[in-house]
Amino acid sequence: MRGPVHPWAIRLLHWTSVVLLVVMAGSGLQILVAFPSFGPQGEPSRWYPWHGSPPPKLLTIGQWLAGARHWHFAFAWLFVANGVAYLAFLFATGEHRERLFRPRRDAVGALQMLAFYLRLRREPPPIALYNPLQRFAYTGAIVLGAVSVASGLVLYKPVQLPLLRALFLGYDGARAVHFFALGALALFTVAHVLMVLRYPRTIRAMTIGQARDD
Amino acid sequence: MTERPTRRALLRGTIAVAASAGLGTALLRSDGMRPKAGFLGAMERWNERFQRALFDPDRMSPELPERELTRDGAFPAYRISAEIPRAPAGWVLDVGGMVARPRAFSLEELMRMTRADTRVRHHCVEGWTAVAGWHGVRLRDLAEIVGADPRAGYVEFRSFDEGYWSSWDRESALHPQTILAYGRNGRLLDPAYGAPLRLYSAVKLGYKMVKYLVSVRFLGAKTGGYWEDQGYEWFAGV
User: Fold this and answer.
1) What is the pLDDT of residues B154-170, one digit of tens each?
2) Does residue A80 form part of some domain?
3) Range of the domain at A50
4) Band of the pLDDT at B1, cuts 50, 70, 90?
5) Domain span at B110
6) Which are the contacts of B228, defined by CB distance < 8 A and separation ≥ 6?
7) Which residues of B touch A70 (CB under 8 A)?
8) How many structural domains compose chain B?
9) Which residues pair with B138 in a beta bridge?
């Protein structure tokens, strides 16, 4: 028996992470409404073009600052637990070998795959469960999740976590990284959904499950 | 042996249903307008324990060089009264509650005590930061003068910005970088920033730092505060 393309735990944790990511992004954007700017007071960051304009209400969760902060700090625990469970499952079952990006093994293949998508190359590189570019994207999303958590901890406890604060060049640095990580995760999500729509049979594999046919 | 796959499938199904039901319940029992109730309330109580465990009374916020000072006028000053509150004639600070020697302090008396200066990053709940230098007396020095009862685990601060108040855990209140400030950036406090006396601290969010102080009371039980009673978290450490 070859088992399913995606083991049950991966399917479950994939979809719980979708829900949790939506909650964290929505409550985070409602928190941003209170100060839609970056950089310390009196020194607005040059890279941010929308100082003073809050994000659209439609994208927010929690209704007001205190409500959104409670959502954010409550669901953050579930977000972390979900990520830890996912990684623990990958490593306990050996699934990480097929799923996670390894630069030495996958870097060239990822570039070849990108060239294939851009029609600069006629043949894709050899593809197993995932192609190397998929590994790069999915592993990148996990790294972005970890960066969000680490920079978020600095925003939560800037004085109590001095080493982490220094890593992000202070509170305002951590706040910028936290926002960039959200932006990058949003881009990942858009690309991911577009690719799923192009290969719709992956939906079945990630929901009710599908046996491996190779 | 033939049973095993079925039992395993049952276990997986149970875990999947439990996880989905748990997450669904958490979502349904979360209401931003009632953040002290349901799942959000339970998690706030958990987060308060987490924050208290993380709080190290000996950990200092870095004292910053003068070049980090926020430029004049860019440091926001919030209040709840429509007009900037002015100190009543004969203003004194009442210090009482669970203390051996309750008494009132005039501004002159406070200014004769050992002066403490702190120039640290200020963290507002809204997400901005700013830096000013603050001058005053350590609350821990004041606690010693009045003989605060070791069993008083909480400290409550009241204001003549009518209706504003807050309460703190004792450990944060007695942190060396928690002061009752009468000066800012080398001058006496401006009325906008809480004159004649305001609470300032490196270890709490701004809304915990009560301006326009009238009283400090050491208490045996936790109370609330102006923003805390509306739904903002009570501990609010940084």
Assistant:
1) 999 999 999 999 999 99
2) yes
3) 8-206
4) very low
5) 63-230
6) B166, B167, B234, B236
7) 30, 32, 35, 40, 43-44, 231, 233
8) 1
9) B179
Report which residue type is found at B67. Answer: R
pTM (two decimals): 0.95
Tell me the pLDDT tens digit for each residue of A78-107. Answer: 999 999 999 999 999 999 999 999 999 999
Radius of gyration of chain B (CA): 22
Rounded to 5°, angle at Cα A126 from A123 and A127: 110
Cis peptide before B196 (omega within 30 of 0): yes
d(CA B28, CA A39): 36
3-class secondary structure, B111 = helix
- CB count within 10 Å of CB A81 equals 13
Are the C-beta atoms of A70 and B47 separated by less than 8 Å?
no
Measured between beta carbons, which residues in chain A are less than 8 angstroms from residue B44?
Answer: 70, 73-74
Q: Quote the tokens at residue A106.
A: 């996958």
A3 belongs to a structural domain: no
| Tally of structural domains, chain A | 1
ipTM confidence? 0.94
Query: Please, are residues B135 and B182 in contact by the beta-carbon 8 Å criterion?
Result: yes
What does the H/E/C string look like for B21-83? HHHHHHHHCCCCCCCCCHHHHHHHHHHHHHHHHHCCCCCCCCCCCHHHCCCCCCCCCCCCCCC
Rg (CA), chain A: 19
Judged by CB atoms within 8 Å, which residues 104-163 of B form the interface with A?
A: 121, 123-131
Q: Determine the Cα–Cα distance for residues B84 and A124; give it in Å rounded to an integer.
A: 69
Residues 14-33 (A) with a CB less than 8 A from some CB of B:
16, 19-20, 23, 30-32
For residue B154, give the H/E element and its range. strand B154-159
